[in-house]
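User: Fold this; tokens only.

Assistant: Input:
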Amino acid sequence: MKLYIVNGSPNCRKVQALIKQLGLDVEIEALGFLDGDLQTKEFLAINPNGMVPALVDGDFRLWESNAIMQYLADKKQGNGVYPNDSASRANINRWLTWEQAHFNKAAGGILFEQFLKPNLMQQDSDPDKVAEHTSNFHRYAAVLNNHLASRQFITGDYLTLADFALASIVAFSGVVDIPLAEYPHISAWYQRVNQIPAWQQTAPPAAEALGKRAVNS
């Protein structure tokens, strides 16, 4: 199997952390975000959206980070992070969907405006967009914070795919103005995730390596 990523991408990190957690044999190739690697004919044949992560497993191509995590988790039965019973999976899937539809969109919007645009795209941040994304973040962070008041991890007392998915964007709270300090239960939960070796081993690279090409990173 081969996973295509961009160094520093939160959606890629969640998949990389799962690979480490499960001990899967997956070759990882980091594409050059600024070099046009995501728009080449070869890569668009893998993911016509021109986005990462993207997984190749033989003749099978898969894109969308949470779908890739679900697929990889099924490669290792009894893994604990994606149980086989339908209720547990539905609960995890609910949070994976919520992460992409709401939480990631809000926090990721702040990251895009305050970090990606000025640092990688040489564009000015839009204060109105930042304000809009921040307002949405508060709306959804309140939901997550209340949910975590009585839980160690997203779905209960053990780590699942949902934790890696949601942690991927929370990790940037120290880089841009994601107001995490106002939500103590989210902060405490993230500190627990941050102690997991697989998460530590997939920390974003140094700033000069963000978006740069690399193989087997």
